[in-house]
């Protein structure tokens, strides 16, 4: 039976555990879970405390299989093509550290890559002489421009006689919060013989991924703790942290030889295959037990999906509300600030749960003299200003403001979610207007 709770304040009060004074406008970083899912996790943790060995050795594998079976249809993939891992960063590391690299191999990625992923590439370069080629991406830019830059870069590198081994890109960027044309980028990779690795941290529960199995990227991760269940990061899916979907199609599973850390599922090379419990494939078995951690978030996917269906009315209803509240709320905040929401003419970048709102702060362009210098800031001060605004938001207003500097402007990334209303965006618009006024008076420079 469906018991739909109205979105907005009623949803927050009935099903979430936020502090009464806290305004949660940054679901995109770590997500949250409704009380029903947290109660389910607590029940599982109680079972683990009562019979630790029995729960971990016998019960958890069954519960994980149930979660994989629940999430696979949401992605349009076979249940044996998906396993669960702690977070998207682990998934990216698992792929990059399993592939066999040769000196001179190239990884192509965009300048908007998640910082931890770029650092992972750098750490691989300490061991193997591979090259990272970064495509500079400045928003707003239309999808066709992104795809053109991507293709042009790969073809140019290949024309130099180099092997582009892998390309990494997102479903929805961390910043700016923008939907990427990831389906078209996968198509380019297939055409040009390049492996595709998708960081779908903002994926499941944030955008429709039921055709993932049709697009068939080579590797895909997404967080479920944002899924408001959702590596696909299940953050948008509402599972507890950390729970991530790791999708590897059958054709590539032989490339993933070890989990991180290497554990019991690893099989020695050139040896007779070990008999696996329950007839499971080596890939699934590899990730079934990887060191001693709390596996209960993995087992919460069915509970999160049930909440989304029974209480929220299903995936389409959730996406529709989140997209709309982000659109309307972002415009309302921008109106209060006298600025704009980042958008393209086609608005495809806005087909997600984010709104990127410009702050009313001006920064000097290199080599350009500006009048009224007291209200125009040097670009080198952007980091300090962003940190100050974030700090004031936490200490004075009990909220967390995701601030970033992009394309010569400062932005706040606001998340649309089922527990928010337009008045929450109006509230943050007023708070940001006050803080930007204080920045213009130089308060951020004071010790």
Summarize the structure.
It is built from 14 helices and 14 strands. It is an alpha/beta fold.
One letter per element, helices H and strands E, the order comes to HHHHEHEHEHEHEHEEEEHHHEEEHEEH
Distance between the termini: 57 Å
- Structural class, from helix and strand content? alpha/beta
Query: With helices defined by DSSP (H or I, 4 residues minimum), what is the helix count?
Result: 14
Overall structural domain count: 2
**Helix content estimate:** 25-40%
Structure characterization notes:
The protein is of the alpha/beta class and 447 residues long. It has 2 domains: 41-305, Aspartate Aminotransferase, domain 2; 315-445, Aspartate Aminotransferase, domain 1 (Alpha-Beta Complex), CATH 3.90.1150. Helix content is 40%, strand content 14%. It contains 14 helices and 14 strands. It has helices at 9-15, 27-30, 35-50, 52-75, 88-98, 115-125, 143-159, 182-192, 212-215, 282-286, 301-310, 315-337, 382-397, 422-440; strands spanning 82-85, 106-110, 131-135, 164-170, 195-199, 219-223, 226-229, 235-238, 244-247, 354-358, 362-363, 376-377, 402-406, 409-415. Strands 1-9-6-5-4-2-3 form a 7-stranded mixed sheet, with helices on both faces. A 3-stranded antiparallel sheet has the order 10-14-13. Strands 7-8 form a two-stranded parallel ribbon. α3 packs antiparallel against α4, α5 (88-98) runs parallel beside α6 (115-125) and α13 (382-397) crosses α14 (422-440). It is globular, with a radius of gyration of 23 Å. It starts with 8 loop residues before the first helix and ends in a 7-residue tail after the last helix. The model is unreliable at 225-235 (pLDDT under 50). One of its GO terms (molecular function) is transferase activity. InterPro entries: Aminotrans_V_dom, PyrdxlP-dep_Trfase, PyrdxlP-dep_Trfase_major. Residues 63-228 form the Aminotransferase class V domain.
